[in-house]
Amino acid sequence: MILASGHTDEEVKYQLGRLLLSSNSPRLERKDPLDDDYVEHWAGVTDGWGAVKAAGQRLLAAGEARDAEYLMLRARLVAAGRPRREALNTPLSADRERDEARAALARALGHLVDLYAAYLDGRD
Question: pTM of the entire structure?
Answer without folding.
Answer: 0.84
